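Our platform keeps sequence and structure together, in a single record for each protein. Nothing more is needed to write down the fold, since each code stands for a local backbone conformation. An entry from our holdings is shown next, in its original layout:
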Amino acid sequence: MRGIAAAPGIAIGRVYVKLSALQIEKRYVLDTEAELQRLKTAIETAKIQLKELISATEERLGAKEAEIFNAHLILLDDPELIDSIQLKLFKNKVNAEWAVKETERELVKLFEEIADEYIRERIADINDVSARLLQNLTGTAAFDPKSLGEKVIITAKDIVPSEMAMLTKEHVLGILTEVGGATSHTAIVARVAGIPAIVGIKGLLEGIKDGALIILDGSTGEVFVEPDEGLIELYGERQRHEEQKLEELKQYIGKATVTLDGFTVELGCNIGAPKDLAAVLENDGEGIGLFRSEFLYMDRCSMPGEEEQLDAYRTVVEGMKNRTVIIRTLDIGGDKQLPYLDIPKEENPFLGLRAIRYCLKDKEIFKVQLRAILRASAFGRVRIMLPMISGIGELREARSIIEAAKLELDSQGLAYDKDIKLGIMIETPAAAIISDILAKEADFFSIGTNDLTQYTLAVDRMNESIAHLYNTYHPAVLRLIKLTIDNAHKHGKWVGMCGEAAQDERLIPILLAMGLDELSVSPPKVLSIRRLIAGLSKKQVERQMDKFLELADAEEVLSFIESI
């Protein structure tokens, strides 16, 4: 079997098949008022349960993961859900359980017809709230992994957010689901919890039985059912090898990231929320090269306010103890949609109203975020970074809004770093080509290779049918990277990289030879990249750069890299 690799790691163990939903029977009732009271009691109980779950989740996983349950609380007061249940109850004179189940079915059907993936993933919230109401109405206990008695691989059609919040490495070896994608809540929480996971496995529950022995490889998306002794031994050895490698890498904690010939590189981390800070510190990240602030806006029903954002930014800034924290301003649109924002459906969302374009359109939302970032800069070394810049006009307009935010803070007597640096993402061919112009006014660059590759090659990176054409080794992409670095250095500005290419160990020698000053990667990659860099000679690779830049295609680039 194969699915979508959601959280890395290998798990070998027995399957526990979690059955989907309660079997609800339709009953006709005479006393509809009594049924209504049962429903109200179930709703109030659910609210109490959710508040307790929010508190427990904040303590274990962080405020970001707990935010999903605030959305569930809001759903319990949503007329579209609650009024519909009550109407069915009274109109059809049915039991409360059936009214809940029918309303759930109708809303799920409605959401499934919406093309937007982010909106469709909110189906999990409706299912979760409905399941909680049904458990309260029927007196059925919620799923509790601690009661299983042994560590198992949880297998299900889907796992709703409140169930995911209870899963820990102490009780669960791995997770398999029939539905979901790489950005689903199951995938996100599994990565945070460090539990190997695969989602979107078609026919999973038909092809796997409760108690079956399986091997799960969360890095490749492969599942082996009832493997033979040879395969078990092979993957057991891979597990031990991975654990040994992690232990060996610890010797690089506290060491500088420097090549054999003395070239120092800053090695920072990409994060999405304050909870990720622990992993940065554990892996000895030298700074935050990319704080994806949009994650503070996701999995919720309304915009985070200035104080909430300030609290999140300040937590990270203080936790990094005067090491640099680069906060990217709101980067939404494309594959990251927020249902509560008034963004019209677009034919080509990756070419539409996204990132800095949206922020410059809705300046008040932008200014709220800028005020929060500026105020956080009073507590450490903060830099602001603008995404999706394609021209000097966008940079200048954004800077004018920052200056207006500074004036507001001055008038209120609120502290901030008056010399805060403003950088930009180089994600479009336009920005790379005019990087000599942009370098005169930006304080630094960070190259976002995911979008730069997509836009340079005109390949939608989310489109499976043309995925083979998406290739960062394409000479056009590499030439734009080199051009950007050269132009920045001519104007005395430094250049980092925060896209996936920054942690591609085959490409790193080339990037350093090009003169890249900083790499920002996922926290678990820090020590392995530091070890790689410690064994490199930058000057040795530099001597071959003229030849490298003449290569014709990605295959020649890979052959060249393997030869150095």
Notes: Residues 145-247 form a domain with the Glucose Oxidase; domain 1 fold (CATH 3.50.30.10). DSSP finds 24 helices and 15 strands in the chain. The chain has three domains: 21-138, 145-247, 265-471+495-503+518-523. The longest strand covers residues 10-17.
